[in-house]
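Objective 1b of the project was to move from sequence-level analysis to a structural picture of ligand recognition. The entry below was assembled by the postdoctoral researcher (A.K.) and checked by the PI before modelling. It contains the amino acid sequence of the target and the SMILES of the bound compound, nicotinamide-adenine-dinucleotide.
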Amino acid sequence: MNRNIETPICDLGFSDKQEAVQPEALKLASRTRRRSSAASTCSFSSACFTASSDEDTVISPREKKQRNTKGFTDFCVKNVLSQHGFGRREIEIAEQEMPGIMTLRKRAREDKPLRNANIVCCTHINAQTAVMVEGLIELGASVRWASCNIYSTQNAVAAALAEAGIPVFAWRGETEEDFWWCLDKCINAPGWAPNMILDDGGDATHLMWKKYPEIFKGIKGIVEESLTGVHRLYHMSKNGKLTVPAINVNDSVTKMKFDNFYCVQDSILDSLKRSTDIMFGGKQVVVCGYGDVGKGCAKSLKAQGCIVYVTEIDPICALQASMDGHRVVTLNEVIRNVDIVVTATGNKNIVTREHMNRMKNGCIVCNMGHSNSEIDVNSLHTPELTWERVRSQVDHIIWPDGRMIILLAEGRLVNMSCSTIPSFVVSITASTQALALIELYNAIPGRYKNDVYLLPKKMDEYVASLHLPTFDAHLTELTDEQAKYLGLNKSGPFKPNYYRY
Ligand SMILES: NC(=O)c1ccc[n+]([C@@H]2O[C@H](COP(=O)([O-])OP(=O)(O)OC[C@H]3O[C@@H](n4cnc5c(N)ncnc54)[C@H](O)[C@@H]3O)[C@@H](O)[C@H]2O)c1
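Corresponding predicted holo structure:
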């Protein structure tokens, strides 16, 4: 019996998404002005960001009966028939820039290492992740796929996947309730017995564990991509609740040192530009958190001529920031003067209402961390503040004295919500995820206990090597004498697990 079957999905209590806790009275009281012009739907040029028709915005995809051109109906996306062609082109463009995952697909196509794997996927749904998931299917897997974020789905891509016969449940701008409904569809479906989870943020794992314990028993392995999801897995493991092995992809070198840094370095500029048309030179920016994500943001903003301040709790990261030429401050010290606030801590309540009350007129506030808890957006839903939607994912929050701040993506991951992301970097992460799935799915019994593991170092090195030909990079081979001197195998691994890169 499923113990929690009666619990409304959105009430399970493990969501870090804020609408769920916003009091109804406040929602009503908060004065919201929505401009009805085209600008309120979208202003981006990419096919994946194109504005929806009026009908689309009024009718929820859940209320529409859709079938693809072959009569397939096991999906729920914004609009399959009008958008799938655009989406397919987006996926094809991404394939050009994703050499690692494409090589993996080609090499393992015959062996089908994921034959009979039934994977519940809960990741962002965009052109790049589509290349990965179509790869998993090519390697033998079946998938059911929901988005891990209500704003990041590229509708055209989701349509292309549905047209290809993939059960996909996601659209950009889902409600909180839709989010859990979509995820539920991926876990609990007639004739579907999931045996693997590919997660980004831990929601699929937690929903299945909490609401469908019987189904959870059939899981052979979990692959988790995000820092937030990894924290949840370690927490489960510590409390003896993790009953399957899991691979922490976030801390794989080929994920963390590339996705968290290089992806962010490109996309922080892209998302700020697309949403606000800001010129960076001379702007004062505070980046909260100086881990890999904070470092990526700070580096590229500084390169554009911004004056960058950093906040940190950790003296090691604070020292790195100082020696990289940034001023380490507390948020209180600079909050009145900065033009842009970027959170990247993976923590909660970094930017409070108190801070926002003191920001200068026009200050841009955005979050690069996984969950939407870094900026206290709930606290902005009070009667005296006016919310004005000026563009898709861009809100002006106006104080009674006329001062306003510009909030991007309602405090959710700004790069996933307001821009596209570099395909090449996603190829690295996607290859790591695919190898982690193959490793857990094919592991001989007993190799992995019910705990959280890192991907074996040799696989990390393999993922990196898949991407070197793009740069015509030529590796130096160890001589026998050198290998002996360093105590290494000539084919790797080349570093101990504790090496930090
Ligand atoms: N936007 C993206 O594309 C993207 C990519 C990868 C990861 N992420 C997310 O970004 C977040 C950060 O990832 P990371 O890899 O940099 O993590 P990290 O742990 O390396 O860095 C976070 C830093 O924040 C600091 N911190 C924590 N609480 C703080 C506070 N109250 N004030 C100031 N600093 C504080 C920590 O000391 C740490 O150095 C995570 O939520 C992660 O899931 C986003």
